[in-house]
Design goal:
By secondary structure, the protein is α+β, with helices and mostly antiparallel strands. The chain is built from 3 helices and 4 strands. A 4-stranded antiparallel beta sheet has the order 3-2-1-4, with no helix packed on it. Strand 2 and strand 3 form a beta hairpin. Helix 2 runs antiparallel to helix 3. The two termini are 65 Å apart.
Length: 184
């Protein structure tokens, strides 16, 4: 009976061992570099030279200037009274001329001309003057700007010196990928 339990335990243990996942030796990297014969390492940075590029850009700028603006100042505040009085007087004078339909036309013409003369007389005391006013507009100004396009980096790995062009400044040390490829 004890042998049955022992054999059952051994079979169960072997079954569990076969079903559990197996892991390869971990090199300490987070990515699968063993598949392409490469690994990550550290190199000492010897020199970093920025590479500049000239770029033409537009910058909006506000352009302001002083301009004289003509102003109208109505001293009485309303020219309607002069227009109405001129129209009444002109209509009355036009009514004195002609007979029949000609009298009606002369009355209308007299009212129009009298209204225009009355309005002109009412505006004679108005004041006109110029005053400076600041006016502004937005203009695009073109300019050349020097921008960093990347960095030429010189670094040492295992005694040999290498050069690379990077988009960033790596600092004192940088990670590199070391690949081993058979020579044919």
């Amino acid at each position: 009976m004890a042998n049955k339990y022992l054999i059952a335990s051994l079979v169960t243990g072997m079954f569990i061992g076969m079903c559990s996942p197996t892991f390869a030796q971990d090199r300490g990297y987070d990515d699968d570099r063993a598949l392409d014969n490469s690994r990550l390492a550290w190199a000492d940075v010897l020199r970093v030279d920025p590479v500049y590029d000239n770029v033409v850009s537009n910058r909006p700028r506000e352009d302001c200037y002083e301009a004289d603006v003509d102003r109208h100042y109505d001293t009485r505040g309303n020219n309607t009274a002069g227009t109405v009085i001129g129209a009444i007087v002109g209509g009355a004078l036009g009514n004195q001329v002609g007979k029949g339909d000609g009298r009606k036309a002369a009355t209308v013409a007299g009212a129009l001309i009298g209204g225009a003369i009355g309005n002109d007389q009412a505006r004679r005391d108005d004041r006109y003057y110029s005053e400076p006013q600041t006016r502004c507009r937005t203009v695009n100004e073109r300019y050349n700007e020097r921008r960093i396009a990347g960095y030429d980096v010189q670094y040492r790995y295992r005694g040999d010196v290498y050069m690379s062009h990077l988009d960033y400044d790596p600092g004192e040390r940088m990670r590199i990928r070391v690949s081993v490829i058979p020579a044919e």
